[in-house]
Amino acid sequence: MKLKNKTTLIILFLFCSFSYGQVNQYNYKRELKGITKPWHKVILHKEIFEKVSPNLFDIRIYGITASNDTIEASYILQLKKEKIIDSNVNFKLLNSSHNEKGYYFTLEVPTEASINELKLDFTQQNFDWKLNLEGSQNQQEWFTIVNDYRILSIKNSETDYQFTKVIFPNSKYRFFRLLIKSDKKPNLSIAKIAHYKANNGDFNNYTIENLKTAQQKQQKLTQLEISLKSPVPVSSLKINVKDNFDFYRPITIEYIADSMNTEQGWKYQYKFLTSGTLNSIEKNEFQFKSTILQKLKISINNYDNNPLTIDTIKVKGYVHELLVRFTEPATYFLTYGNKKALKPSYDIERFTSKITDTLTVLNLGKEQLIDKKEVLKKEPLFKNKNWLWAVMGIIIFVLGWFSLKMMQKK
């Protein structure tokens, strides 16, 4: 009975040490205040991203119970992205005709669905057309939806760009008439009618601390270097250009993933985020996978054109939040700061549909450093090699003595 009790105490001691060790692997903690229900929401402050690992694997929520036990709360990391529904609507192409104004295409929508998007595809390349879109319930009276809407295709050795999507306010008509103002017949290969719906996501807008512009004349490049105040998760970049003439320039966006100070100065390792076309038709908002970064590099290929005049650049990123489940009363802390941590795996990741949308947001306390227990340095059992040789000699002597005894008995 005494042996059993001692074994139980040893197991409990090891468990407590392991639990503490888990918390002790992280550098920072913030107390979670206002826990009143099993489910709550935690918004990650932008100051936290400076100290977490780039993959966010080192975020944990630990609690200290009244009996001083350490427990872990499960969570789901969620980015407040836009919710996009882009559904195609069935239609019939009734007829096509032309006159001195251009070429007409009449479409019938046999349902009462509202539409706000027309996707066009042509066999031709290199065109620049204006179009009108009208709607009608009876093909007798027509109402203008868009007027002088520009669609464009450019393909050559320098540029491969196409903009043939017609976006307009929600419209509910039985018939739609498309007029393309062209001298040559547009070879319309595909037309899709769709209803596009997007619920805006929640973003943090970040202030640019420093912006440098350099013209690489030999490479015919404009390079912009953007510095933010601290590392933050970025997922979108909007570039506003002052020039009011038409332009179509290939663009590449990268970020500094690592740096090294050498005798020749700082060397930077860049990683690719996205590429596209900076142009005079669209909004020039480039989206990419949410990435924790502090410095960006934008490269604009000017070819033989004069460099563009950049007006403003807006940097933003999705709000990051944790959906947390609490199962036991305790004082809970958000802990982070361990680049070696592996991604946690929780059961609740498979039951997200059961989580309500109306969770109360918890308040985060001030950041605290987690105290580290002093780890005693393990020293070799025998510092002097003579002791090791002595022990080996004794072992050999004992083995030899037993062998000799056995031989004598035989």
SS strand fraction: over 45%
Compute the gyration radius: what is it? 33 Å
The number of distinct β-strands equals: 25
Number of helical segments? 2
Question: What class do helices, strands and sheet pairing give?
Answer: mainly beta
> What's the domain count?
3
Shape: elongated
Helix content: 10-25%
Could you tell me how far the N terminus lies from the C terminus, measured between alpha carbons in angstroms? 45 Å
What number is the mean pLDDT?
Answer: 88
Q: Which series of helices and strands comes N to C?
A: HEEEEEEEEEEEEEEEEEEEEEEEEEH
Largest sheet entry: 8 strands, antiparallel
Low-confidence stretches: 1-21, 374-379
Topology:
Elements: H1 2-24, E1 28-33, E2 39-43, E3 60-64, E4 70-79, E5 83-89, E6 92-99, E7 102-108, E8 115-122, E9 127-136, E10 143-155, E11 160-163, E12 165-171, E13 175-181, E14 188-199, E15 203-206, E16 208-216, E17 221-241, E18 248-262, E19 265-279, E20 285-301, E21 310-318, E22 320-325, E23 331-336, E24 363-364, E25 368-369, H2 385-409
Antiparallel strand pairs: 1-23, 1-24, 1-25, 2-22, 3-4, 3-23, 4-22, 5-14, 6-7, 7-13, 8-12, 8-14, 9-10, 9-13, 10-11, 15-21, 16-17, 17-20, 17-21, 18-19, 18-20
